[in-house]
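Feature request, filed as a ticket because there's no other form

It would be nice if the structure record came with a short human-readable summary line next to the tokens. Right now we just get the raw output. Example of a typical job, pasted below so the devs can see what we mean:
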Amino acid sequence: MGENVPVRCPACRRQHTFTPPVFPCACGEPVAPPLLRGAAPERITHRTWTDAWVTVRCGSCGRQGQWPQPELGCACGVVLRIPVRPVPRPAPGTRPPAGTRAGRPPASAAGHPPHIPLPPTAAPPRPEFRPMTIRTARDAVTAAALYLKWLGFRDIMQSPERPASGIDLRAPGMVAQVDPTTRPAGLRDVECLWLHGLSASAVGVFFSLAGYADDARARADTLGVPLFVMDLTGTPQPVNPPADELISTGA
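Raw output as currently delivered:
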């Protein structure tokens, strides 16, 4: 079990006692992220994939892996990120622990990524996405629908033709626009999608074949609208932090 530390919410000043979660290392030993005593917790207002993980070293075998960043939900509604002690760098001339190379996290014998322990309630990894070649504007909408289904959205409804609203795809909790034109999507396009999502209490997701204008990308970051670009192979690529977050969390 990890070490208990006192945590005070910066919003309501409530005092909490926090115990970090414990996950098994690849060697089988339980490991908890070492909390940084005395450091103020950080209020979480925006999530990214990078912020969701911390590097932790197993005290038994010396392996370094990515553990979920410890978080605490306060009764006032604020979610706090609990600081973790950074892994110390090895002294010059010392050998890295067994299973590591140059201080980097170990890879498995099969060449897989470093060990990332998952909570017991975590969903199983998604299978590899199989794209659909885009030849027409309707193909672009279908390819986006396949990708959203791969992300975990269910009961996706596809508009029969280009709707005046610009919303090509709908699902519970999601609306999406697909721009198959050769011009970058503009600021107004992003704002209209966001308003449609707001009125439907849903996340708005944008797909474009020609990318986005600079002001549209900046506005999407502010509003939290995930932006993806697609090539003719039908494989969407994230272009802003909300899109990265959507990929990491899924629907």
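Something like this underneath would help us a lot:
The mean pLDDT is 79.
Residues 137-249 form a domain with the Trna Endonuclease; Chain: A, domain 1 fold (CATH 3.40.1350.10).
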